[in-house]
Specification:
Layout lengths: L5 H18 L5 H15 L3 E3 L3 E5 L2 E7 L3 E3 L3 E6 L6 H14 L3 E6 L7 E6 L1
Parallel strand pairs: 5-6
Antiparallel strand pairs: 1-4, 2-3, 4-5, 6-7
Length: about 120
Amino acid sequence: MELILGKEVYQIAGAAIEVHKVLGSGFLEAVYQEALSIEFQLRGIPFVSQPQLQICYKDNILNKLYYPDFLCFDTIIVELKAITKLGGSEESQLINYLKATGKHVGLLLNFGSVGKLEWKKIVF
């Protein structure tokens, strides 16, 4: 069975690993977001930085908009963190964004963990 958007997620994770390799940990999230934008461009990964996504509630579009860090391949929500360790609240946040936007795949990237990039794919 083929992984859901496995190739695309692998490409995004590879770009993030390169950013982490070059910058290491310790910067603010905004630094990693800018560097990852450059890496996506270099690798030809289609993305939109902080796109406006509408949230639906019972078939009603809410006025409140959601701005994920990235939307890649028009289908994968990418959320960046620069914290010591990912936990349940970060995963719950991404799951809620997937539910609310109707997207099915999210990628949580944490540049704050020491030693290596921490990342998690979430399918909803």
